[in-house]
Design brief:
31% of the residues lie in helices and 17% in strands. By secondary structure, it is α/β, with parallel strands linked by helices. Keywords: Hydrolase.
């Protein structure tokens, strides 16, 4: 595997907050041997390759909350760190409406290679953090930090942010209410996506299966353009999470 970002970067591992932050789609890195997966370089700057603005937002949020943060180090086009390995969207042949030539007709050995190189180290690091907190008796909420496109397949999305969840209904309701109380915000309740156990990993596996409150926070990426906007969202999300975790 060529040089580049580590499969996972752990920041603030001893953070005192009652939550652990994950940013599975932090990076648009494609290892050199994959030759940009056959895509023009500009395609790797799009949302299909990563969650634009999410890594910076997660870093600011980690600092404001004093929370541990795990950042993924590879593009979700190589392998998606928030999808069950082997699922159709784990290594997509088409993302949104864009064919991914370098993912067509992959062998089982290549799929296993990508899983071992990128997915497994990230997953193991999350498990270590959560196991250590459980052993120490520390309360933990699992939060994935994401961004979404203003328009998807021609459909405009009206929400400024959304909260995605499955089992953690009480926590999610409190988080949605706290964000909706902010002036001028329309917050998606399991919008613009829904958690599906066969298609998602972070919430079902690292949260629900452990009996931990877990949710993904999605912020519309056009609202994360620039440092001031990212800082404003970090402040807003920190306030809402503190309220919801009480």
């Amino acid at each position: 595997m060529s040089s580049g970002p580590a499969p996972v970067t752990l920041l603030n591992p001893e953070g005192a907050a009652a939550c652990v932050l994950l940013c599975e789609h932090a990076s648009n890195h494609v290892p050199a041997e994959y030759r940009d997966l056959g895509l023009p370089p500009e395609e790797l700057q799009r949302h299909i390759a990563w969650d634009i603005g999410a890594a910076a937002l997660a870093g600011r949020l980690s600092a404001r909350l004093d929370a541990p943060l795990l950042l993924g180090g590879v593009s979700r086009l190589v392998i998606d760190l928030n999808r069950p390995p082997g699922s159709p969207t784990s290594i997509p042949e088409v993302s949104e409406a864009t064919p991914i030539p370098g993912n067509r007709a992959l062998s089982a050995s290549e799929r296993a290679r990508r899983e071992a190189a990128w997915f497994a180290p990230f997953d193991a690091a999350v498990r270590r953090v959560l196991d250590a907190r459980a052993a120490a008796g520390r309360p933990t909420v699992v939060i994935g930090v994401h961004s979404f496109t203003p328009v998807y397949l021609g459909e405009r999305r009206p929400w400024q942010a959304g909260v995605l969840y499955a089992c953690a209904t009480h926590f999610a309701a409190a988080l949605v209410a706290a964000l909706a109380a902010e002036p001028g915000l329309l917050i998606g309740d399991n919008q613009p996506y829904r958690i599906e156990p066969e298609m998602d990993w972070t919430v079902p596996v690292h949260g629900d299966a452990r009996g931990l409150d877990a949710a993904l926070i999605e912020v519309r990426q056009d609202l994360l353009a620039g440092d001031a906007a990212i800082e404003a969202w970090a402040r807003r999300l920190a306030r809402a999470l503190r309220t919801a975790m009480r």
